[in-house]
Amino acid sequence: MDDILSLGGRVALVTGAGQGVGRQIALHLAAHDCGGVAVNDYFQERAEAVVEEIKAAGGKALAVQADVTDFEQVKAMVARTAEELGPVGVLVNNAGNMGANPPQEGMGKPFWEVGPEVWNAAIGVNFYGVIHTVSAVVPGMIARQAPGRIITIISDAGRYGDAGLEIYGGAKAGAAGFTRGVARSLGRYGVTANSIAIAATRTPATVRMFSDPERMKRQFERYIVRRPGEPTDIANMALFLASDASSWITGQTYPVNGGFTLAL
Question: Which residues are annotated as catalytic?
Answer without folding.
Answer: 168
